[in-house]
Amino acid sequence: xxxxxxxxxxxxxxxxxxxxxxxxxxxxxxxxxxxxxxxxxxxxxxxxxxxxxxxxxxxxxxxxxxxxxxxxxxxxxxxxxxxxxxxxxxxxxxxxxxxxxxxxxxxxxxxxxxxxxxxxxxxxxxxxxxxxxxxxxxxxxxxxxxxxxxxxxxxxxxxxxxxxxxxxxxxxxxxxxxxxxxxxxxxxxxxxxxxxxxxxxxxxxxxxxxxxxxxxxxxxxxxxxxxxxxxxxxxxxxxxxxxxxxxxxxxxxxxxxxxxxxxxxxxxxxxxxxxxxxxxxxxxxxxxxxxxxxxxxxxxxxxxxxxxxxxxxxxxxxxxxxxxxxxxxxxxxxxxxxxxxxxxxxxxxxxxxxxxxxxxxxxxxxxxxxxxxxxxxxxxxxxxxxxxxxxxxxxxxxxxxxxxxxxxxxxxxxxxxxxxxxxxxxxxxxxxxxxxxxxxxxxxxxxxxxxxxxxxxxxxxxxxxxxxxxxxxxxxxxxxxxxxxxxxxxxxxxxxxxxxxxxxxxxxxxxxxxxxxxxxxxxxxxxxxxxxxxxxxxxxxxxxxxxxxxxxxxxxxxxxxxxxxxxxxxxxxxxxxxxxxxxxxxxxxxxxxxxxxxxxxxxxxxxxxxxxxxxxxxxxxxxxxxxxxxxxxxxxxxxxxxxxxxxxxxxxxxxxxxxxxxxxxxxxxxxxxxxxxxxxxxxxxxxxxxxxxxxxxxxxxxxxxxxxxxxxxxxxxxxxxxxxxxxxxxxxxxxxxxxxxxxxxxxxxxxxxxxxxxxxxxxxxxxxxxxxxxxxxxxxxxxxxxxxxxxxxxxxxxxxxxxxxxxxxxxxxxxxxxxxxxxxxxxxxxxxxxxxxxxxxxxxxxxxxxxxxxxxxxxxxxxxxxxxxxxxxxxxxxxxxxxxxxxxxxxxxxxxxxxxxxxxxxxxxxxxxxxxxxxxxxxxxxxxxxxxxxxxxxxxxxxxxxxxxxxxxxxxxxxxxxxxxxxxxxxxxxxxxxxxxxxxxxxxxxxxxxxxxxxxxxxxxxxxxxxxxxxxxxxxxxxxxxxxxxxxxxxxxxxxxxxxxxxxxxxxxxxxxxxxxxxxxxxxxxxxxxxxxxxxxxxxxxxxxxxxxxxxxxxxxxxxxxxxxxxxxxxxxxxxxxxxxxxxxxxxxxxxxxxxxxxxxxxxxxxxxxxxxxxxxxxxxxxxxxxxxxxxxxxxxxxxxxxxxxxxxxxxxxxxxxxxxxxxxxxxxxxxxxx
Length: 1219
Known about the structure:
kinase; 19% strand; eight-stranded parallel sheet; Leucine-rich repeat, LRR (right-handed beta-alpha superhelix); single chain; alpha/beta
């Protein structure tokens, strides 16, 4: 008993001691975790703009901080930090994870949607050997930040329990693998990944990965096949740069668990009509849209995918034939998207077998005829129906569609639907409708007055380009959810009901080209400020601009032009900080041009022409030069009508909202019809609206402005159009205008300007329209650049102006040098010429001596370099962290680097792969060097260009130029894969093109067994034009090719054309503008005539060269051929044939097999002749060439033009929908 009584207090004492030790240990662990969190804050959080971490102690605090379990974003379990969620807090700083990875109980780390940046170089805290794994993480989300560079090898591999890793929406370039084998979800989408080894690892070493998303990156090469991914369920490789044929075993080797497969938005090719879909029995989502798949039909084997819920084959414009009829086996299909192909015939009734499950049906942008079969009225679950851009007709909207009561979105634009508009029927029978788009049909009648009482959910009412009449019903104000109203290009009259302007969610109000009248209601934005687009131009509105317009602080586009507005511009426009486009032209507005326009921080388009504005041009208009970030105008479709009829039509041109408007209808619009020479360009470029740093369009012409031209306008380096003509301006043309590096159209005519034309105007390389006529200018017209190529009418009526193209300057010309015309002056000139010639001869001899010395150097040093030198490629992608306008833009310039596998190639490898650069391996010789076919050790075949006569550039300059060239990726440009520099050798590694050059294909038929028919030649013409247009208009900086010719147009095995050697030209940029070129580049027969007058190369010179290539395609003849043309050439001969009305003799005899093809050849010849105009300013740009192809409806895939259209080029949106 005594012993037990003694043991009891001892046990209690031991228990208390144990609890004390445990509390001490817990306190120590809590202190460690507190220290780790504060270390993270100190190292990574440089900014906390919202004060989200206000309850966290200061990062450098030395006082006791206590338990972190109550801090913002921290979740504990048993006193240990288990979760850290700081998502969406706008935190910024250079992210380091080492402190957080040291938290022993941390399972979930969520830092998404912040502004963390930097390279993730630190993985985890070091621990002594033998201790438990330092990382307990299961869930990591670092998405939507600004992380860049290459991930550390085996990133997070110590986290042996990691299951979820999301690194999407950053700027990562590769690395990170191998990942923990426990990983089941990996999302690295929307980065700039180009590391092919990462892609290959992901599909071969994926272990337990079930979800893999690598979409919206920059992976190149072919599609890899599956291996070792037995668990994968979702695979998304969409919107990359992958090409090549569709692997025949892609689905047959796919894992059994695969349910989602997307390869959309690549360049994958192949005949899908022969493809075996036997391995898709478990697939639920199959998205192969926007590739280059061909075939006459979808194969019957597709019926094996009986579990499919979504099938998307859109944007493969070579898919043709009838819509297949085997849809009965798809019992679960919810989304069928076949838009943007060439399906013909009627919509098969068999498609209605899907009605039991179908939610989305999109057959738009095909060539379907007839109507919608009656059985589709049974589609009780259908919510979205898009049949736009076809040739449908009949009354199926009333008889069939109106019976689909589940419909929410109905799109039927660009068809041939006639009769009274069906709104009343749709409103009665489809009460759930949110979007109605019936634009560009032939509907008439009035807009029903009680529309929204039956359609309470209506968000978009799109009815332009019909024959609707009557008035705008005031009852539209009952549409409390409506966001967009487009009634433009109809026959509406009367006033805009003030009630409509009270709509609480209204974003777009577009009613241009009607006959609306009265005052614009002064009720704008009285109920809300959501309005972004107000386009009511070309009506008959009177009165003034309502002052309430300045309350609409979210307005982006205002167009009130072409009305009868009077009075001055109300004050307050400076408050509209989002305003990008302001069009007030063709009214009777008066007063001064408001200086506060310069306070609009996003204003890029200002058109005030043809009014009664007076006073001076405010210099503040240029206040935002260099500050505008661009990109605020998005989701819009535009048409620009360029005025090419001179004074017949005032102003530089007209910009219109172009959604659902047919181009042929626009051509009949009075503002365009009265200007016979006006050309219509539809779909403004992304570059125009998203890459600007200043105003791009400023038209103040046809007013009564006085005073001098502000020199500050010369600061607007991105200005493309400046029209100050037809005013009363005085003084000199500012020398600062030489800073308008992007100017394309400059009109200063019909003023009272004095002085000389600044000599620096000759350096404005993009200038294609220049007019200073009817002023008081004096002196000699600058002879450099393109100035002298403009017609005399653009300089006339300046009494003191002389020189080409006007009469020669006399001895006493105010700015001329009369000394050359005197005997002494001529003698002095001759002496100077002789001295210059002697100096040039000495320089040439010195160069030869140096060259011979280098050639005679001992070979030992060369051999040693071959053994030890490694090829260089672009630097590690850690140096490339650019973001354009805050979002990725895959169909514009791609910021890619060379493929990593080529980095480890030595000069010796390339030497071996070309058999010592033997003549047998040589496949071509050009002005820049010889080209060899090389087969690398991995079996891949590349082309190696060995540069010759390499002088003038040091290593740094050469590397810098290669870095720029390597970033350029486009479907019609030959990509540079890598380069090697060792000693004096410079080797460029390109993708190999199987069919060689167009030059050989056309002119050396004995070497090949392929005859190019007219269809192939059309394809080559458009593809090469597309590539050249990309160089001119979408690369930043722009690139002038300088040697465009048929031998620089290469053909792959599908006869797709690729422009090569573009990287050999010096790059155009805002600072250099290629103006230091001191020699003529180009090949005889392709060189523009103005190059013989000026050494400055321009984009219009490239256009001329392209015209020669187009003429080669049409004629099959060489540009220079003594036996064919003697001392003449192809261009002069063809022009003579046209002049003599003998055009048919131009065409290659093997092409004129059908009347239809001959008609097309005449149309192509017309385009070639425009490109070959002797006057550069009269030649089209390459964008305009593509527009002409589109007008001829020859460019069947329209991919180039779509890529530059604002409403369709936003891959962020497109890829979002496809994921």
